[in-house]
Design goal:
The chain is an alpha+beta fold. The chain is about 50% helix and about 15% strand.
């Protein structure tokens, strides 16, 4: 068997020890076997008989059978009878009846085919191992007031400051402490555009809680710095960084067998002994019919070769290894053949809303003043009062309000992908508010220039003394609420200034990603959200969901996923933490934005390293292609056995049988390697 097969059947432990020739030893041995065999065959065909050709055939046995014998002995010692064993029995049988040239060609072609197959599989494995070579071996560390010193990355400690020069690789996970620039994160996240990086506002706070550092400050080992020099504060040791975890999990993925692979292993376990029984039956039948023993024995050995399921054993592992390696290069971590195959068969995908289909933070999307002339006062008042609050909605008003620019167009301007119907000037610093009082579930009260400012829901507004909410403003507020907006009415003193609408905006790529999934054969998309049904419906319409379920608790999401699984294989897309129960209940759980998140990397079956939903159509298409190739390889392997067994029973020789046998093995491996070139 090849290394790939041994890694699969032995639980991932490769048993080869190649010696001083390294990985080329098996190929060198096979080529030597071929050379001496051809020399012996030439002498035999030119009439030079005697002991020399036979000695060369025996040498071909030695060179061609060395690795095969070693693997067979290890397998038998472990209680398994595998393809190697069948080939050795056939070769020994040919020698026993004096057909040394037939046994030699069997071992020569078998060893040569498997050496080439091992080389091809090594290509797939090297594509995975190349991930581990992305991280630099050394880093420039600034310790104290002196110049940076170069140290091995293994000596880096949490809190060290690493200097990353322009156009060099980042040596460790961390955050930007000083400097600005862009970083090519494609080796980790698959993002095609370099990400802009800025320093964190508070280094000590970021070191205390690295997860709180925003994506605009986080960096990962193995990514490539742009033209600006950066000072990086290290947050993970070399063996624990995101790249190391990805490499380890991808390598471990080989051990997680797929349903098809488990079928082939069970099939081989019973098939190989069955072949030996068939050979015994053929020998007995020959004896009963009076056929010469040499002819009967030769035909039985040919059947033994034809029935060897070598291509079947390697068909699925080759495809899985290639697909997992290609996915990792594209910023997607697939944990083995099982989730790969299952994802390729999906017909239903359920999405979490917040942080998955949306950006995960509210945006100020509408500013509706009572009077057109009051737009600026409305926003300035709201920003001034909300500056005192740490509520996420208040922070959204302050953050987005400060960035709006006056627009004369009645159709409004676009902020964060959402049209703002009434934008105003807010560049000047607002007045200072004070004496904030938060009314949980209702709103806030603050004092601004000697007047009380009330900001809150329509229900809260109706409880206030003084003039009621104007009818036009009430109608507009209710209209915004029906379209999924969270609304805030603003009153200053006794004057109603207007209402603000906020919404967790869909990701810009969400609608295109959902449409691409539908084009790939996903028949049903469902959004599961804990938000109010109206809010969920608004996002669902924007991104093109087939179904929307709002107002769900975590246990409700689990129940919905269970319901969906009753009718079709279902994936659950979430953040890997809050949605872990629902993801665990799905056919395949997929985590978004897993780069830097140990929890997401460990809990998900598939992890999208970035927050880019476009990775989802990529892995869906790759999984579907892998499933097709696995099926192609499976049917080709079984078909070859089905044709060769009766052909050899009717007289086809060992040479042609082993040529077709090994040729089919190389075909299925080459077919699997096409996955390495899958287009993003």
């Amino acid at each position: 068997m090849t290394e790939a097969e041994n890694a699969t059947t032995n639980g991932g432990a490769t048993t080869h020890r190649h010696g001083f020739l390294g990985e080329r030893a098996e190929l060198v041995s096979a080529l030597l076997a071929l050379t001496v065999y051809l020399a012996g065959l030439t002498l035999q065909l030119t009439g030079h008989g005697g002991p020399v050709p036979q000695a060369l055939f025996i040498a071909a046995y030695a060179f061609g059978g060395f690795f095969t014998l070693r693997e067979a002995l290890l397998a038998v010692h472990g209680g398994r009878f595998q393809v190697d064993f069948l080939m050795l029995v056939a070769a020994a049988g040919a020698a026993a009846i004096g057909r040394w040239e037939e046994g030699a060609v069997l071992l020569v072609l078998f060893s040569l085919g498997h050496a080439l197959e091992g080389y091809a599989m090594g290509r797939a494995r090297r594509s995975i191992e190349a991930l581990g070579a992305l991280a630099p071996r050394t880093a420039l560390v600034r310790r104290g007031a002196g110049a940076p010193v170069e140290v091995p990355v293994e000596e880096l400690a949490v809190g060290d400051t690493v200097v990353v020069r322009p156009h060099t690789r980042v040596p460790a996970d961390g955050f930007v402490a000083a400097g600005t620039g862009s970083v090519d994160q494609s080796p980790i996240t698959g993002e095609s555009i370099p990400a802009d990086k800025v320093p964190v506002a508070d280094r000590a706070a970021a070191l205390a809680d690295p997860g709180a550092a925003g994506p605009e400050s986080r960096v990962y080992a193995g990514t490539v710095n742009g033209s600006g020099a950066l000072d990086i504060a290290v947050t993970r040791l070399a063996g624990e960084n995101t790249l190391a975890r990805v490499v380890k999990l991808v390598q471990d993925a080989e051990e997680r067998t797929s349903p098809t692979q488990r079928f082939t292993e069970r099939f081989t376990k019973f098939f190989v002994p069955g072949v030996l029984v068939l050979v015994a039956v053929l020998l007995a039948a020959g004896a009963l019919t009076g056929e010469p023993f040499a002819d009967t024995f030769y035909r039985a050995m040919a059947v033994l070769v034809a029935a060897s399921p070598c291509a079947l054993a390697i068909a699925t592992p080759a495809a899985v290894l290639s697909a997992v390696g290609r996915a990792a290069r594209g910023g997607v971590l697939v944990k083995g053949g099982a989730p790969l195959e299952e994802f390729g068969r999906l017909r239903t995908i359920a999405f979490d809303k917040t942080g998955t289909l949306t950006e995960g933070r509210p945006r100020l999307t509408e500013i509706e003043p009572v009077h057109a002339a009051g737009r600026e006062e409305l926003l300035r008042t709201a920003v001034a009062a909300q500056r005192l609050s740490d509520h996420p909605l208040a922070q959204a008003v302050v953050r987005d309000g400060a960035g709006l620019v006056q627009a004369a167009s009645p159709s409004g301007v676009t902020v964060s992908g959402v049209t703002v119907s009434e934008a105003v000037v807010s560049e000047a610093a607002p007045s200072e508010a004070r004496n904030l009082r938060a009314l949980v579930g209702h709103g806030i009260v603050a004092e601004l220039d000697g007047e009380d400012v009330h900001i809150g829901s329509l229900a809260y507004a109706d409880t206030l003394a003084g003039p009621p909410v104007p009818a036009r403003l009430r109608d507009r507020t209710e209209e915004l609420a029906r379209t999924g907006r969270t609304t805030m009415l603003v009153r200053r003193g006794d004057r109603w200034l207007g209402t603000l609408g906020l919404m967790d905006a869909p990701r810009p790529e969400a609608a295109a990603a959902v449409a691409a999934l539908r084009g790939l054969g996903v028949q049903r998309t469902v959004m599961l959200s804990g938000d109010d049904q109206r809010v969920a419906d608004a996002v669902g319409r924007a991104v093109g969901m087939d179904e929307v379920r709002g107002g769900l608790l975590p246990e409700d999401k689990v129940a919905e996923v269970t319901r969906l699984r009753r009718t079709a294989r279902t994936a659950m897309i979430g953040d890997g933490v809050n949605d872990a129960p629902a993801m665990a209940g799905a056919t395949v759980g997929v985590a978004m934005g897993a780069a830097g998140s140990a929890v997401a990397l460990e809990t998900a079956d598939i992890a999208l390293m970035s927050d880019d939903l476009r990775r989802l159509p990529f892995i869906t298409g790759l999984s579907r292609r892998a499933s097709r190739i696995i099926r192609q390889n499976l049917w080709l392997s079984l078909g070859i056995v089905a044709v060769l067994v009766p052909a050899t029973a009717l007289g086809l020789g060992i040479g042609p049988a082993v040529l077709v046998h090994e040729g089919s093995t190389l075909v299925v491996v080459a077919n699997a390697l096409r996955l390495l070139r899958y287009a993003d």
